[in-house]
Amino acid sequence: MHINQFTEVISACRFCFMCRHLSAVGQAGCREADTPRGRALIADSIRMHPEKIADADFVDTIYRSDLAGSNRFHCDGYHDGKGYDEVGLQLALRRDIVEAGTQPENVKKIADEFEKTADWKVEGAGDVLYFTDRYSQSTPEIAQSFAKLAEKGAVKYRTISGGCIGKVLRVLGYADRSKAVAKKFAAFINGLGAKTLVVSNPAAYDTLVNDYKEYGIELKVKVMHSSEFIANLKLAYKPIKESVGYIESDFLKNYVKNYPYPAELLKQIGAKCEPIGTNIEESYTAGEAAVVLPLLNPTLTGQLAGQVAKSVDNELLLTASPYTRRTLSDANLKVLTLEEFAAQSL
Ligand code: SF4
Known about the structure:
Blueprint: H1 7-13, H2 24-29, H3 36-48, H4 56-64, H5 71-74, H6 86-100, H7 105-116, E1 120-124, E2 128-132, H8 134-138, H9 140-152, E3 157-162, H10 167-172, H11 175-190, E4 196-199, H12 202-215, E5 222-225, H13 226-233, E6 243-247, H14 250-255, H15 261-269, E7 272-274, H16 293-296, H17 298-311, E8 317-319, H18 322-330, E9 335-337, H19 338-344
Parallel strand pairs: 2-3, 2-4, 4-5, 6-7, 6-8, 8-9
Antiparallel strand pairs: 1-3
Helix pairs in contact: 1-3, 3-6, 9-19, 13-15
Bound molecules: iron/sulfur cluster.
């Protein structure tokens, strides 16, 4: 089983309750099972009794996780610059569940649907490629803002639109199918002969930079999150008077390890950012790293968004994540992506 690569994590986390506040689903629903310790106990139970991989409550709990990964930095068992990788354990457990065939029906359905969308088209001209994923496409203002900023910076670009590039399949536990889709997308991108690939979605950035590397797939372009690309344009912005709340992306903070460009761009714009929630360790993304949580469990996603609403006082929230923008806007919070905020500040 894949979880056997994480026996150290299982042993450490099942006796530890120090990072319970870092599981947003645990905070939102107050279920002990939805904490890193609860999930490690499930993994330990399955390790000792493999037949328990069919336990419906266990499987449901593992697919409820928001996968935020804050404990990659804020684990109390932090040693030699490395915390226990509780998210790695959960992803391994999802792979084991899929390989045992005990995943819920909606997981199978979502995976099949996303795999079918692995097809892309190109529009425009230029050395720069701009990829719009499902969440970016669901908020057209994001691509419109990117266009405004690119025009201001005299950048010509091609837009790539289409579906799954591997992340959803990976997150659901279908590692082999994720790799096959990733190979197809890389061949498509490499065939375009461009120099730069810009993505608005941190999930796409993480998958192109980290997952593709793990799969041994080479991309012959420099991949950038849109915050890096826009910051590099060094545009002039109007001074901003009101303070805003910036919601850290789980992917850019915890998976890519404190990607610096959202902060750099906010500095260029002159935004006065107030802290969000009770401390910088917690996740307020409403399940960004679980990528398809609104499809898997809309009630839970609503609870996460409600938790964010209770934790913020800022009238305007900013995010690097089109997922968080979509999910919190649906819960009536005022949220803009960095592209939108930058374009409005020109
Ligand atoms: S990730 Fe670290 S702090 Fe959290 S339960 Fe495991 S050992 Fe404890």
